[in-house]
Amino acid sequence: MSDDQRDQTPAGPAAAAPARAASTASAASGPTVPTGPQPEPIRYFGTTWVKRESGYGLRRAALAVGSLVTATAAAVLLRLSYEGLEIGNVGPFLSISVVVLFAIASSIAFIKTWDSYNRRPAPSSDEAALKGLKTIGFIGSLIAYSLRCLVEAPGEKLRRAEYERALADYERRRSTRTGNPAARRPKRKK
Fold first, then answer.
1. CA 14, CA 105: separation in Å to the nearest integer?
2. Which of 21, 114, 171, 183 is most buried, by CB atoms within 10 Å?
3. Nearest to 60, CA basis, from 39, 71, 46
4. Cβ–Cβ < 8 Å for 158, 118
5. How far apart are CA 97 and CA 99, in angstroms?
6. DSSP designation for 36
7. CB–CB of 82/95 below 8 Å?
8. In terms of Cα–Cα distance, which of 93, 98, 101 is closest to 132?
């Protein structure tokens, strides 16, 4: 057998055994699987909202300022678009209609976004139907996000209540257990 053929042959069981032993040793010393309910991560915050650690406050402030700056830039862009309509001399009806449309869409987007931080939408709700309207009124969503970041991570109150309820249920279920049911003695028949 030539050297090239030896290099291309698969490793035998003897060579695979040390690799398997090393992988099981690292798995044994690796992280343990968490028990109980786990917190739901929030976008840009992960699970730092649980203990409010790892720069949580700084991240909230940065996101509040960032979304407010983005909303301001979007408003300037809409203003430039409106000026383009004025230059195009499209008439007062269309100009006013565009302003009213964006104002209504932004207010609806603000309200729906703000409500989504306090409750989960019902499966048969009108959220899917309003997706386009919320996209048009993105400035309202950005302002709602910015204002919510000043108070807490957006959606933190809802997720914290759900997480604490799940922890309480888990502890209640866990405390009512009394050992291994298979090790119990069978009941005597009278």
1. 69
2. 114
3. 46
4. yes
5. 5
6. S
7. yes
8. 101
Tens of pLDDT along the chain (190 residues) come to 555 554 554 454 444 444 444 444 444 555 677 778 888 888 888 888 888 888 888 999 999 999 999 999 999 999 999 899 889 888 889 989 999 999 999 999 999 999 888 888 777 667 777 888 888 999 999 999 999 999 988 988 999 999 999 999 888 888 766 667 676 677 777 6
Distance CA 23, CA 7 (A): 23
Using only C-alpha atoms, what is the Rg of the chain?
29
- Helices (DSSP H) in the chain: which residue ranges? 3-8, 13-29, 56-87, 92-116, 131-136, 138-151, 156-175
HSE value, Cβ hemisphere, 13 Å, CA-based, for 109: 22
Pairwise CA distance, residues 3 & 77, whole Å: 68
- C-alpha to C-alpha distance for 69 and 80, rounded to whole angstroms: 17
pTM above 0.85, yes or no: no
